[in-house]
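Work Package 3 (structural annotation) set out to generate three-dimensional models for the target panel prioritized at the project kickoff. During this period the team completed the workflow that converts sequence records into discrete structure tokens, so that structures can be stored uniformly alongside our sequence database. As a representative example, we reproduce one entry of 377 residues exactly as it appears in the project archive.
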Amino acid sequence: MAYEWVKRGYKVTAVTGTPNYPTGKYFPGYSWFKNTKETHNGVDIYRIPLIAPGHTKLGLVLNYYSFPFFGFWWQLFSRIKADEVFMFETSPMHQCKVGVRFAKRHKIPCYLYVQDLWPENLEMITGIHSPIIIKPIERMVRYIYKGCTHLWGTSPSFVDAIRKYVDPSEHDKVSFWPQYAEEFYQPLPKKKHKGFNVIFTGNIGQAQGLEILPLAARKIREQGIKDIRFTIVGDGRARKSFEESITENGVWDMFEFAGRVTPQEVPALLATGDAAFLSFADDELFAKTIPAKLQSYMACAMPIIASAKGETARVIKEADCGICSDIGDAEELACSILAMSKLSEEKLAKLGNNALKYNKEHFDKKTLMDEMDTYLR
């Protein structure tokens, strides 16, 4: 979005932290005092110090709170002259306090694009439901939402969830604005291969619930079927537990890991697959979610196999672009994979074309960015 705004003539300054996601360690060449100011594709980037989380819960907590702590002091002394603030909110939501305070101090509009719902996301990750913890988080959420001129949610369900923390008189300042796939996500000629290849791309995290895939693979193996394979593209904090699940189910010969790649490399990898896969952990929060992965798959004209419900299931059904089984149901997922593997090339191509058509009609980047321009001053 920042790069697109530069193309459209905006002056864009990005305020972020020291890069460390998803490995939990600082990227090579970066530290608290190294490469704290950069310019990339016309975007000026300021990096506020933060604590890298590593792989511990304490590290994650320190990571969550270090950015708003250092950001508080940054916004007090920053000489950046802005006309408005736009915040892109993935967890943790604490980060948004920096933008809200900056906007209030300079008396300028403040916009928020909500990607993760809080406190719901925190409850899902930590399993904490105690009012002693959750009530202060809810107050923070209300403070952030109240400080915003306008808010967007990535699905209609997100809009409803956000409005619970907004005064009824201000419900109109919350609207639906879906994610889109970048222009480089496009269909490429299919690469021939043996068998039926299901491909997953993206973060391997707790939220993805990928452990269901080895369970489904074992059920497919038990039926004596040997020509189905799974390609996993990406990395993340839950990769180790995912690999352990593959070992426990004895299906390593059905899996191949391609590791982390750049987003630009994903379309070529998808061209090696017959269907693309996405899944969620079994939590009601994900019924409200439309993941960005879905738009990327659809833009590449991929038939989709999903273990999901709610908004994701709705989109796949409306687009008629794949098969969706219920979250956590390995038996049903195995049946979905087998059913898809038996389709002819023509029927698979039709599902892919349906996905591409729906993506152009509902998730077109230019159309969505034109709409966003109407809000900016």
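The mean pLDDT is 93.
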